[in-house]
Amino acid sequence: MNISDQLERHFDAYDLFGHGTVIAVSGGADSVALLRAFAAYARRTKAVPGRSLVVAHLHHGLRETEADADAEFVRKLAETTGLPYVEQRVTPGRIVSEKNGSLEDSARRFRYDFLRKTAEKQGFRYVATAHTRDDQLETVLHRIIRGTGIAGLRGIPVVRRLSEAVTLVRPLLAVDRAAILAYLRSLHQPFRTDVSNTDLRHTRNRIRNRLLPLLRDEFNSRVDEAILRLAVHAREERTLIDSRVEGLLEQSTLRAAPDTVTLDRERLHREPDFLIREMLLLVWRERNWPLRHMGSREWNALTAMLRHPPGLRREFPDGILAETRDDGDLTLTKRKAHINTTDLPCPIHAPN
């Protein structure tokens, strides 16, 4: 898939220049190609990129001097393309201290928080990241191995909300990495290489460098297309499920606030457990309650409270209290405030 064609589709659909876009650039091949493609489009259309585009780089320090070199490379590339440059530095100790799950997950949360705040500060609507078709393939396969449902099989969405004001877009999600590298070669454009991407201690790297080549060579030469087709079917089916679940939550909500909700037992008792679990998951997401420690056992236990006689009380992870009182209606209450501690400044450096 041609990079320029993909970008133009997104420019037409979302008006990325008109509403402003923060371009996330790590210095790797994918993000460098995204930046160069944005800059090329701006030249062709005679847009003024400095007014509607900002290059953003998170320096997490996890690779020591290599991280310094990455940041300097991206700063110079932004200067070359005439774009403002934003950098945020986070110490590795801070990422480790805030770790909830894997180190990679923690670093990812810092990154998206930084990108969102940069866009909000600039008054921009969009953040663009350089996820590719290969990332989509690896993500779906990783989730299958780890264990997932239909929602997980959808893979990486092209668009998702980061906040009420900011939307994340992935213009290169249909472009494979081979096309990215060919594009950069045609421009004689260097990029940074993260040596940790070859470290086979990481599951993602073993999927990329061992499992996928094995599947292609010994099982199905077109396994990439098969996995990506599965993701498309999952997205289509999930759209129907989401519509049903949203309607069910609206019909069964008796009282609602940011930290509590009461659900109508009478309305829910004839619904299948699957839909009730999905509706409860939506309750968590709408209130931004922590999900990491809510597994199958917890969702099943919560669903069962609607099936059993009233008068039950149970504490769920991260301070969520569930109660069924005399009428059997289920009340969920968040008893501890969830504090976001990643509110760090985002200095802006404009090119000379």
Determine the mean pLDDT: 88
Strand order of the largest sheet: 5-6-4-1-2-3-12
Quantity of strands, as a count: 12
Order of helices and strands: HHEHHEHEHHEHHEEHHHEEHHHEEEE
Shape: globular
Q: Briefly, what CATH class of the largest domain?
A: Alpha Beta
Distance between the termini: 35 Å
Which percent band covers the strand fraction? 5-15%
The CATH H-level homologous superfamily of the largest domain: HUPs
**What is the CATH-assigned architecture of the largest domain?**
3-Layer(aba) Sandwich
- CATH topology (level 3) name of the largest domain: Rossmann fold
Structural class based on helices, strands and sheet pairing = alpha/beta
As residue ranges, the low-confidence spans are: 338-352
- Count of alpha and pi helical runs: 15
What summary fits the major beta sheet?
A: 7 strands, mixed
Describe this protein's structure.
With 352 residues, this protein is an alpha/beta fold. It folds into two domains: 3-132 and 156-197, HUPs (Rossmann fold, 3-Layer(aba) Sandwich), CATH 3.40.50.620; 244-334, Uridine Diphospho-n-acetylenolpyruvylglucosamine Reductase, domain 3 (2-Layer Sandwich), CATH 3.30.465. Helix content is 52%, strand content 14%. It contains 15 helices and twelve strands. The protein has helices spanning 3-14, 16-19, 29-45, 49-52, 65-81, 92-97, 103-122, 133-146, 150-153, 177-187, 203-218, 223-252, 265-268, 273-286, 296-305, and strands spanning 21-24, 53-59, 85-89, 126-128, 159-161, 167-169, 253-257, 260-263, 313-316, 320-324, 330-334, 348-349. It has a seven-stranded mixed β-sheet with strand order 5-6-4-1-2-3-12, with helices on both faces. Strands 7-8-11-10-9 form a five-stranded antiparallel β-sheet. Strand 7 (253-257) and strand 8 form a beta hairpin. The protein starts with a helix and ends with a strand.
